[in-house]
Every structure is written in C-alpha cells, then in structure tokens.
Amino acid sequence: xxxxxxxxxxxxxxxxxxxxxxxxxxxxxxxxxxxxxxxxxxxxxxxxxxxxxxxxxxxxxxxxxxxxxxxxxxxxxxxxxxxxxxxxxxxxxxxxxxxxxxxxxxxxxxxxxxxxxxxxxxxxxxxxxxxxxxxxxxxxxxxxxxxxx
Length: 149
Prior knowledge:
- The chain is an all-alpha fold.
- It contains four helices and no strands.
- It is elongated and about 60 Å long.
C-alpha cells in the first residue's frame, strides 16, 4: 500500500469516527439548555456535516485498502491481522448501508433504529480498527508497493 493511501485511510476513518462519536454523544446523551430546540449545542449540525462529508472519503479509502492491502495479503497467505481485517471488511458493508439509509428513511421509528444500529456498528468498527495490527514498516515501504526504479 502506498503512503498516501494509508494516510487517506487513517485520516478518513479518524475523522469519521471522531465526528460520529461526538455527534452520537451530543444527540443521545446531552440535553440542551433551550427547551424549544432539539440541539444540545448550536454547533451540533456542523459535527454531523463533518461526519457526512468525511464518510465518502473513508468508504473510498476502504476500497483502496481492500484492493492494495487485503487482497494482496490474502494472495500472499499472510495470517497476521486476518481476523480483525475480515471483521472490519464485513462490518463496513452494513455500516455504509445504514449510513446512507438514515437520511432517506421517512418513518421516525425506522430512522431511529437505523441510527442506533449505525452507531453500534460504528463503535465496533472503530474499536476493531484500533486493534487491527499496523505494520512496523512505513506504508510506502511495505512489500505491496512496487519497487523503486
């Protein structure tokens, strides 16, 4: 995997995880001071906007990682990181699907439960990402990169 691909992946998922966690805390656990508003704080919509705008970058990065990292390691028969990598790959599908469904669902109950499911999968994904082994080499130095001429 190339260095820029690793950076896009790590940065994309870090922004999505941090903004998602912050938005979830604000939405579900913090009570606002204004009784006429559902917002916990005035900047809550900005946190959601950051999350929604960063998510496509993270999903794009997941495609890069799958092509350049996961498939290569599977072909080489490498075992390290396979359980967490497989779990992250399979968790990404419902995570992305629920993320795209939340804004288009019209029923309050469906949107509410999809939001909770998305939050739960997102937390599991973030924890799995933290525990997924990172190479001791720099990403540009990994065996998957083409040799320098």
